[in-house]
Structures
1.
Amino acid sequence: MLFPASFWFGVMLILPLIVITIFSFGERAPNGGYIPSFTFDQYLNLPARFVAFKNTLTLAPIGTITALIIGYPLAYYLVFKVADNKKNLLLILIIIPFWTSILIRTYAWIFILGSKGIPNLLEYVGIENLRLINTSFAVLVGIVYSYLPLMVLPIYVSLEKLDKRLLEASSDLGASNFKNFINIIIPLSIPGIATGCMLVFILLMGEFLIPAFLGGGKVFFVGNALVDLFLQSRNWPYGSAVACSLVIIMLIIVSIYMKFINSKNNREEVSII
Amino acid sequence: MKKNITKKEFLKELRKYEKGSTTRREFLGRTGLGLATAVFSAYGLSSFGSKANANIGDRVVLATWPNYHDVNNFENFKKQTGASVRVNVFGSNEEMLAKLQAGGSGWDVFVPTNYTISTYVDEDLIEPLDLSKLSNYNAGSFEKRFSDAGKVNGKVYAVPKNWGTTGYVVNTKHTKKTPTTWKEFWDLTKTSFSGRTMVHDYQLTTIGNALKYFGYSFNSVDTKELADAEKLLLECKPHLFAINSDYQPSLRNGDAWMSMCWTGDGKQLNSDLPEMTFVLGKEGGELWSDYYAIPKGAPHRDAAYALINYLLDPQVNSKEVLAHGYPSADSRTNALLPKSLLEDPILYPAKDLLSALEFGAAVTLTDPNRAELMARFKSA
Amino acid sequence: MRLYAYLIYFFLYFPIAIIVFFSFNSGKHASDFQGFSLKWYPKLFDNPFLIDAFNTSLMVALISAILASTFGTMAAIGLNNLKGKLRVFYDSLVYISVMIPGIVIGIATLIALVTLFKFLNPLLANIWPTSFGKPPLLNLGYVSLIGAHTLFTMSLSILIVRSRLNGMDRNLIEASNDLYGTPVKTFLKITLPQLFPAILSAFLLSFTFSFDDFIIAFFVAGSETTLPVYVFSSIRRGVTPEINAIATLILTFTILLLLASHLLMKYKNYSNKGSKK
């Protein structure tokens, strides 16, 4: 039963990972590419991409948290405030944007944030020369826009599973709605929050398109650094070192995160999917 | 348009054609009969042309630069040969090289710049051209320095497309005095044009023109000079609108006011929006020429030759020039162009401006320090 | 609260509305509306590269979704009976392949395969019998694309199917075994029908992922062009409303598909209820 999967893991995962690990200790060929060697130069040169790592490691958490803050109330609304017959429709409406090419949706924002879009409207109310496009803000908008559905759906599922009798019992005992929310709803929806945050965070760590389109080549993520290293400077060994470092950083962050979440929430093992 | 040909010249050409020292295309081009032929073949009346292109397949993939062709020519090519042209756009020679080095690019024709051709040959990525399949190519009608740059070790690997310069375009609505130097370009970026300037996503020109700020060579790989350029670039980085080689959309919609700019883009912008002024920095900068080449293992090789040959046809080429505004080095093409264009100061800069320019050097393409500098600049 | 929800829906749909709106633009530039026109739609079908890209995407997505859901289901069942260190090893492989960014998968696959081919191609050329004609030249393309997509989607499928497997009613399987059902029969009659919804959703998710993936294809597609790669290179040279028209068509198609499945479900529920009476 495991044979096809083993084969796939071997050829498409383990082999490539071994190859980039080996390459990351190599040297760049004069015209670009790779020369076998054993050197730590590539890793020692990592500080040259410090800003890319810094941008990714700040905007990824900020994007994740913003998506959570915006997405949670929506999931809450869908579960508790919407009649059952409308629920499915509203849920499908959240999924549909996900089916439209992410490239094109991101491109639409170039227009909306460009000077003929929102800044043009703002000029009527007296705010002039506002620049939105090609800024970190634009990248953040793009991030939240693209990944909001991924945040809302897991939270929706975990809230939906919640036993509503608990809330009734609590209200009967005189708890206010707010108390209910803090003491019952939030703790019980932690698995959903954890899953949503993890999904969004993982995707953001490898993001390339959104900063490329909405950052105008100025907001630089590790993903952009990688694309440039392979498609411009053709520095395979250094690119491999950057890629390996990214994976290692992610594994560390994710395992710490999982430990933390699981210790807070020992009722149910949290998985990332 | 076309210079009138005297009877004597016509007979001379005819004799040459009969003796076989001139090809049919050249003969038609020189005698002005080409225009009539082009009209006929456009309507499918020329059995000669269609037969030659009988089996080239239904597609050809061209990797080229932004805004560098007349799309109508591609449509006519499709009508004549049945092959659709797929255009892939790239903003730097490095990117083209990287794609070919990784293998399986799927390109049939691509457009490298003069200084990169020797590297492609070293890396065994392009093949010598079979000139018998390019009847429209006549090395003699090109200025020698342009046709020679396509030759490596005596073999022709690439044939000239267009040449041009790298300057900058500035929207003069936003400035009282039109700048004339690279120094002003960078100084404006830091001051009144803050947030409105674009530079290429291309190390050769972006670093090269920063080097010009200090009066260094455009091609410098000197550590100290590059360090100066890097300092300037990092200082300007927060003031840039974007780092992107496809700058026309942002300039047209008013997001950007100034951008590094190639000849043809400057001409296209200036024709549509007169306030867009093309400036060649007095300190110098880049003079370049581009070529058509065929990568090794091109999937549609016959169509590749047919497309290059088609685009080299002076009739077609002159339409290209009219559309994209890059000068051609082909005297047969220039003979078909209106005089106003041949005297256009954007296409043909004054001698003193031109003589300050430099061709890119092969070493800048592969120099690891320049590549790293560009990456540091972008990630800063 | 309701206002807030509507605002978010507006936020989600405004860009999409813009895309659809500009697909009817008669002008050449996507962001400069010149007047209403349908001309970009017939143009789509006249563009062989677009049709090709669409077909490539469809085929790659279909094949990798079939492979991923089949192998993923097999692996999930296989893993269920696996204990100890080997289990931990496989589990971490599954998590790693879901977690590694697509861009790293794309790059790693690219350089691994390019290096492998550099080594294999001359070897193949040497041992290839001349009577077979020209030796094949290994290169990036369909196979590498499907391979890389399937890695991610297979792991996703394993996770989905496994969670269903854990929630499954074990008593039925035991009962079947007690009644001397063969393992194959038990699997076909009991396990598979119960797993079916999970397998289906694994298939659909895999298909969606593969169809919309840009970054992996960008690196490993070789000379093939998928729809997202085509769209990316078109956007780079300034979007014409053609791209908007493609997006609008795909969107319409998606909505129709969702609507159809919704109606189908409703119908099924209705007839089920009917039969229970």
2.
Amino acid sequence: MARSSTEPGKRVRVMVAKPGLDGHDRGAKVLALALKDAGMEVIYLGLRQSPESIARSAVDENVDVVCLSCLSGAHNHLFPEVVRKLREMGAGDIPVLGGGLIPEEDRDFLRSEGVAEVFSPTVPMKEVVRRIEELAQR
Amino acid sequence: MTKDNDPATLRQAYENWRNEVLARTAAKWGRSLEDMPKSVYTPLDLEDHDYLRDLGFPGQYPFTRGVYPTAIPGGLFGVRQYSGFGTAEETRDRLRYLIGRGQAGFSLASDLPTQIGYDSDHPLARGEIGRIGVAIDTLEDLDTILEAFEDKTQPFVSRPSFTANSQAAVIIAMFVALADKYGVPLENITGTIQNDILKEYVARGTYIYPPRPSLKLVGDTIEFCAKRMPRFNFISISGYHIREAGASPAQEIAFTLSNGIAYVEEGLRRGLSVDDFAPRISFIFASGILFFEEVAKFRACRRIWARTMKERFGASKPDSQKLRFASGFAGSTYTSRRPLNNIIRATIECFASIAGGATGSAVAPYDEAICLPTEESSLIALDTPRILGYEAKVTDVNDPLGGSYYVEALTDQLEEEALSIMRVIEDMGGAVAAIENGYMQGEIAKGAYEQFKQMESGEKTVVGVNRFETEEFTVCETFRLDPQVEEKQLKRLAAAKKRRDPAAVRDSLKRLRGAAERDENVMEPLLDAVKRNATVGEICDVFRDVWGEYRPPQGI
């Protein structure tokens, strides 16, 4: 399924979701509110989403970027699974970003699995916003 | 006895101090007197105070100064590390290690599938099995964990603590089934289970069913425990997760105590008298980094709860009016940058909870912000209150900050703020209504975002993160879960299922369903089902079928 390419100046549509069973949504909600304040359209999917349902919603909502947050340690299973499902649905061009409690040494693995960017909690929000805008333009 | 100055003289003296002493500093700073921050508290801040009415003595109504007459019974409170990971065997071995190093009892963490009522072989469990806690699928798993104790009867009387909410009734049933197996009379069982489902919708997210049937299930456990397990704390109402999710100290008090009121009302609906079950209600609060405010918060909590229980619910036993709480050290104040600084944060937070009258504690290891704790970081966490108690002797006196003009004023101020939020919730129809309409969740998300913005703008300082930053980065040792754990647990579950009598399991689940459908207390059929090794998932599926599943509103 092809999605409309993002023209410069158009509002970025971004999805924020919590894959898996982790209920710690403070970071995800803060991110969603901050992206809204930065002028983006935010679709907040909330807790307990399967990789399949996240990918499905991302396609249905025609988003430019998918942001995932996980603090339970299951990211190595869940993040690549979202990438895979998007590819299966022909939407492999939607970049997937991850955040939460992701140990340094897992970042390369996640990138090799097709996760476009992995943010640590110490990255300033300005930088996160800039990177999302950049990825959305591609 | 101090000689109090009369208010008029004092006020005059205070004005003189402002105009003569403070004004000089203000001039130096180039500020007007009005722009100077309030930097001292005096008896003038406590003009309406009545010592006996508002404070009293420790162990006496309104318990502002503590629920026990002595500082901490027996010196230092038992310290228990929140622990559990992998399969029951790994957790048993870890517990043995902690017990061998002087830990009393245990505080058991379950993995997310267990906490949300999914068996390890459920598709949604993939990737989460044995993480953040141990997988408990059947009674056999809990039995294996308790092998950490040489004396089989020991775990039941060592005041263990269970972090179980949506599946709390199942865990209580399992604990009772094992007590039966090892010949421990139910009336001797001690311990605490979280069993606070309402805050799961607000903050922690491990709900299964909608709020109302969930509250009914909590009611079933209250009734069962009040009648059969009188020494077991059947609920630990949590402000901890509410605060950690972004609530202010006043909101933490108000949301938590409003949830508490909902549980008391549920107990009363069962025809229990308030004094039959209220003494076994316990709490857990966050002990954050705002040292004086945390101490004041604990004191305000005790006063509000005591007055609510006495005046609103007519509780006459002092034990029903006492707010006993354990504190959890605020992981949200921990930083992944320069993680060793978290040891300092833990010390401050631990001191606040001791000075605030906590009756138990869980110190978070310094590496919690980055990885699952290592053995070394766990040991440092265990030592933190030991050093405060044995070396610094901060546990010797009850409520050591009582009488501080500042802390008393903060206590009054937090009490007032919390009471006004509680009235807002009451006007909505109580805690359940304030959850169903998203009020509590919305307030917390707003709070979290505000705090985040303050940090990003530098209005709020976090050392090493937004100020005093260095390039240097200490990487702690990351705990790695054995990748074989998932397979191991799946094998354990398959073996347990093979050993049981399928017809007996089916029958017990059918009886359970019947009780749920007829709106009866489900605890007896539940006990029967766990004894027959019905799984957590099978049991929760019965309830899912009868009560439905909670779907939170999308969006924020």
